[in-house]
Design brief:
There is one protein chain. With about 400 residues, this protein is mainly beta. It has 5 domains: about 30 residues; about 100 residues, RNA Polymerase Alpha Subunit, Chain A, domain 2 (Beta Complex), CATH 2.170.120; about 90 residues, Beta Complex (RNA Polymerase Alpha Subunit, Chain A, domain 2); about 90 residues, RNA Polymerase Alpha Subunit, Chain A, domain 2, CATH 2.170.120.40; about 90 residues, RNA Polymerase Alpha Subunit, Chain A, domain 2. The longest helix has 30 residues. The protein is elongated. It starts with a helix and ends with a strand.
């Protein structure tokens, strides 16, 4: 019995709903009564922009971009107006920059006759429009890296394509733009980055510039940031005995102490040190660094950018002594010339232990001047000299560039 009542009640509800729908359809389509309703947030559109563009002008702001319309008409017409009515502002008649107050004009869809509705017009139909001078510029696009790298990796500068963009907009805003930026923000990077990123405009101080009236030739830019594995390789030199000094009694420091290299991982991972070559101690003065080129192995890249290293050598328990040598001998005088010494004595530096230095006198220093490569012309010239220290194994001559003045005559 209860089940029967429930079924009957459900049938009555369905019947009532169908009856209400039929009645509504009758009222809308047959009776079609006149009513008044408000359409909220009807969009405001701009007409005549092309005319402004020809004058180098543009619309940059509206006091509002939508309005509410009170419309009187029959209900069937309201259905056709839904999401189809709009308001336009015609700016084609304006010839200069400034703020203007323009009356909006409503636009009805084609299916609705203008005499089929009544729209109540009032002050709300007016919109204040801002018109400004338009400017177009080409600006550079700069790539930046603001992320992080895994230790042992290094990034090269970010490459950007396109490298320039065209920006258009209000002249006052466009003139503030310094450049465009695309920023790679990836974290813990250990491989090259290849992405397409959003372009951001910035001013001279690096502040972001955003304006709804700005347009770019492209909102995106492609970036490529090479990332490479790097190794800091210690530098070393080989010391050669000379100048009264033994390599075992000398120490050295190198600046920079290391060079940062990138290249094939299988090669770099096995490279423990990089040699700058040899230094003859007989050519080195303590306190005067020797400058040597940093040799970069083939296929590798010097990431430091430093091409030379400075090597400073320190000697233990050795002293220096300057002696005026006057035993100067000329050999291999060019045929047809006679040579005479202009330099009568030469200051020579000797290094060694104090006891050994005390035994060195001027008569033990022999200076030989070989004129084989002398310029064969009359007059004075400087010629390299070779220094020999006789009778001492614990002291030695220091310096590789000695020369004397010689006069050649006929």
């Amino acid at each position: 019995m209860n089940e029967t009542r429930k079924n009957r009640r459900g049938a009555n509800v369905v019947f009532a709903l169908l009856l209400a729908i039929l009645l509504w359809l009758y009222v809308v389509n047959v009776e079609n009564p006149v009513a008044e309703t408000t359409f909220d947030d009807v969009p405001v559109t701009i007409h005549g922009v092309e005319a402004l563009n020809e004058l180098g002008l543009m619309v940059t702001d509206l006091s509002r971009d939508s309005m509410d319309l009170k419309i009187r008409g029959n209900r069937k017409t309201f259905l056709k107006l839904y999401n189809s009515v709009s308001v336009t502002l015609d700016v084609s008649a304006y010839k200069q920059a400034g703020e203007v107050r323009i009356r909006g004009k409503y636009v009805l869809p084609d299916l609705v006759a203008a005499d089929g509705v009544v729209i109540r017009e009032n002050e709300n139909f007016y919109v204040t429009v801002t018109i400004e001078k338009k400017a177009t510029r080409e600006i550079p696009v700069i790539g930046e890296f603001a992320g992080t790298l895994i230790s042992g990796y290094e990034a090269d500068p970010v490459m950007v394509s396109p490298s320039t963009l065209e920006v258009s907009g209000p002249e006052t805003v466009v003139n503030q733009i310094a450049h465009a930026v695309v920023t790679v923000r990836d974290e813990n990077v250990k491989s090259s980055v290849d992405q397409e990123l959003l372009v951001v405009l910035v001013d001279q101080k690096g502040n972001i510039l955003a304006h709804p009236s700005l347009t770019l030739s492209s909102q995106m830019a492609k970036v490529f940031m090479p990332v490479v594995r790097v190794y800091d390789i210690p530098l070393e030199v080989t010391l050669i005995d000379g100048g009264g000094a033994k390599s075992a009694g000398a120490t050295y420091t190198i600046s920079p102490a290391t060079v940062r290299l990138s290249g094939p991982d299988e090669v770099l991972s096995g490279l423990r040190k990089l040699s700058l070559g040899e230094i003859n101690l007989g050519e080195v003065f303590e306190g005067v660094p020797a400058v040597l080129p940093i040799p970069i192995p083939e296929g590798m890249t010097n990431r430091n950018g430093e091409t030379e290293a400075s090597v400073s050598v320190t000697f233990k328990d050795l002293q220096m002594k300057s002696i005026s040598a006057n035993q100067i001998h000329l050999i291999n005088v060019p045929q047809g010339y006679r040579a005479t010494l202009v330099t009568e004595s030469l200051q020579v530096w000797i290094r060694g232990g104090q006891a050994a230095l005390d035994q060195v006198t001027a008569d033990k220093i022999q200076v030989t001047v070989d004129l084989t490569d002398a310029v064969q012309t009359t007059g004075q010239q400087w010629v390299p000299a070779t220094i020999n220290l006789e009778g001492s194994t614990e002291a030695g001559v220091v310096g590789a560039e000695y020369s004397v003045a010689v006069n050649l005559g006929r």
